[in-house]
Each structure stands twice: as structure tokens, then as C-alpha cells.
Amino acid sequence: MSRINYWRFERPLKLWSLSIMLLLSVFILLNSPTSSAHQFSTAHAKLEPNGENQYQGYLALSLQDIQQALSIDPNNDGKLLWQEVINSMPNIEGYLTNNLTIWHKPLNPQDTAVTCQINWSKAPKLSELYGETLLQIPLTAVCPEQEAAVDQLSLQYSAFFDILNDHKLLLTWSFNEGETYFIVDNAKQITSLPFVTSSVLDTIHFYLYQGVIHIWFGLDHVLFVFALILPFAWLRFRQGRYSGTKSLALKDLLVLITSFTLAHSITLTLTALNVLSIPSQWAEIGIAISVAFTAINIITHWVKRLGIITFLFGLLHGMGFAGALSELGLSKTYKISSIVAFNLGVEIGQVAIIFLLYPLLTRLRKTQVLQYRLVPTLAVLIAIMGGYWIVERL
User: Fold this and answer.
1) Closest C-alpha to 72, from 60, 84, 90
2) Residue 323 domain-assigned?
3) Which chain regions cross the lipid bilayer (predicted)?
4) Using CA atoms, how far apart are residues 216 and 222, in angstroms rounded to an integer?
5) Number of neighbours of residue 302 by Cβ within 10 angstroms
6) What is the domain range of residue 254?
7) 235 with 246: CB under 8 angstroms?
8) Confidence band, pLDDT 50/70/90 cuts, at residue 32
9) How confident is the model at residue 250 (pLDDT cuts 50, 70, 90)?
């Protein structure tokens, strides 16, 4: 009986296969995200009551976003000076006034809503918030007195959405020593700020959802998980190593994923609690290396037992997750609950990805032609993407 040689392709890839791989590689590189798969255009805001019918807080914005919207660098030399920012404040404040509306929502829908006046009277400053340097602009909102009963405060924010597709506002509403968190991701969204103290369940729901969303939109994490489980589509992989067996054991796959989960849970928690800290750039480079190495290893088999290397790479990914969590900010009232909920959300998103891909792995395993052409093609494309991120993040 002839024996399949599992250590190399059964037949060489034809010219058309190589052409497809090259075209797909070029397409991915031309349409790839920016160097960090986690850095989106993000603004931050905080608002809290400050006496009757008055509110105070701030907007914290990226200078890069402001430059893109308003061109506040007059000589276009790429070096934004603080004096140039100060000189541009009237334009910045005018832009924000036109794109931020706050009003009291009446309890009776038939009553007229009253719009609050927004003031930018205090001086701005540069602040280190959520892991990046932002222009923090203090604001106050004064709402006229009204006879109608007020149900809640409403807010509509529309800045930057017309020029930045990935822009979002992370809003913290403080009330009675409790904090509620909101995300504004489109210009038409109206956010309702209730006059009640947030509960731990509200906090858990927010961070759980954000954990799921983060891994689904974190392309480097998704590709790493895909590269990690792709070997299970090959006949020669079982029990965490290349062996030549024909069985596809879900439990073996789950062992690797559990190793990855345990590792990134450790570093996510330690980093979020400020026990562990490394420059975010190095963590992002390490994540990119993990993507490229894991993909290349599908073809080269440098490492046959993936449990240990998966755990080590998981430590790096945990730091990446922690960076996203720091961008959101931790609940002061429910700090541990925030970390646990975000981590659990990441796990839910990760498991969803695996179970969506598992039928594909099973299908590939049943078709030898697909195995020996599609699997290495996918591995090469993932490796190219990982290599691209390495160069971009250096």
C-alpha cells in the first residue's frame, strides 16, 4: 500500500495557483489596516452634574483627527506646535459646538425638549488618557429651567464621522458616584444619560460586549487564531503535533485554545492592574511576529508541539487586549468586574470564531486537493500579512 508523504505537497502548485496567491497577497497589502490592528480614531468624553441644570466634563481628542478635520498646522510642516493648537482653539471650539448637542429630554413626549448651552471657557491641555496623548478640552453645559419634568439628559455627537469611518466616542457619564459607559459610533446616534446610578450588571454588559467586538475587529488576533487551528485541516496533525493520523479531534483543538486563553488572561489582568507594563509598540510587534511565525510553521513544522509556543504568544496577545481595555478605561466603581467581563467577552468572541471555522476545517480534511492547495495558500497569505505588520510596527 502506497503511503502519502505528508511532509511535502503531493504535487507542485501550478502556475495559476501561484498567480492567485500573488494577486491575493497584493490585494491584502493594499487593503490592509494601519500598523496597529487596535488603534482606531477614538475620542473620549466625560460628563457629570454640577449643580442644578448644569453639567461639566471634557472632550479629549486626537490632534491627528483635529488636523485632518480642520488643518490646524498652518505651515503644513508636519510638526504641530502647542502655540498653533492654541491659535486654532476658536476654530476647534466652533467645530465642536456645531457637532455636539446636549438637551433635557422631558418625561412627557409631548413637551418640548430644551437645548443646553455649551461653553468652552477653560483652557485646554494635553493629557495622557487611556494610553495616548490627547487634547483635553473642558466643557460646561447650562440648561435653561423648565416647568416640564425632565426624564434624562440626551446627547448627540457628530464630529469627525464624515471624514473618519472608524471614528467613535467613548463617553463616561458620572452620576451619584457611579459611572455608566456609552459608545457613540455614528453621527445620528442619540445617547440617553439616565439620572440613576449604574449597576454592576450595566458595567458587565458594557465590557462584555466590548470584549467580543474587540476580537472580532482585531484582525491580527483573528488571523492568529485561524493560523493556530488551520493545521487541524491536515491529516497529519493530532494531539497538538504533526503525526500523520486521519482523525480530527475537537478536544485537541480546544487544548491549544485553552493554552492561548490562559496565557492572555494572565497578561491582560496584570497589565490592566498596572502590575505588568511594557511599551505597547513592542507588544504589537510581538503579536505580528506570532501571526507570521504560526502561519509559516504550518508549512515548515519548525515546532511540532504547539502548546508551549501558543502559551508564550498568548502572553503577548494579552498585552494587546489590555491596550484596548486601557483605551476604554476601567470602571472606578467596578474595576475587577470590568476586567473580568472584558476578558470573558474576548473568550466568547474567540469561541465564536473557532466554531464558525471548524466546519471549514472538517471540509478541507475530507478533500485532499483542497488540503494540499488551499491550506498552504492560506498559510502563506497569513504569513505575508504578519510580515507586513512587523515592518509597519517597527
Assistant:
1) 84
2) yes
3) 207-232, 253-276, 282-299, 306-324, 336-358, 370-391
4) 7
5) 9
6) 207-393
7) yes
8) very low
9) low
Cell numbers for 8:
511535502
Enter the DSSP assignment of 13.
Answer: P
| pLDDT value of residue 39 | 56
The residues with which 164 forms a beta bridge, in sequence order, are none
Same domain for 357 and 326? yes
Task: Give the burial class of 295: count Cβ atoms within 10 A of its Cβ; 0-12 exposed, 13-18 middle, 19 or more buried.
Answer: buried
DSSP 2: -
pLDDT at 114 over 70: yes
Mean pLDDT of the chain, nearest integer: 81
| CA end-to-end span of the chain | 51
Report d(CA 317, CA 188) in Å as an integer: 34
DSSP helix/strand/coil, 154: strand
- Contact at 8 Å (CB) between 211 and 282? no
Residue 364 located in a structural domain = yes
Report the DSSP pairing between strands 168-175 and 42-49: parallel
Q: Are 309 and 303 in contact (CB under 8 A)?
A: yes
Residue 2's pLDDT is what? Answer: 41
Q: Same structural domain for residues 123 and 218?
A: no
Please state whether beta strands 190-194 and 132-142 pair in parallel, antiparallel, or not at all (unpaired): unpaired
Strands (E), 93-149: 100-106, 114-115, 117-119, 125-129, 132-142
pLDDT in tens, 115-140: 999 999 889 999 876 557 899 999 99
Residues 367 and 255 grouped into a single domain: yes
Mode of pairing for the β-strands spanning 54-61 and 178-184: unpaired
User: Which pLDDT score is estimated for 113?
Assistant: 81
Distance CA 152, CA 373 (A): 59
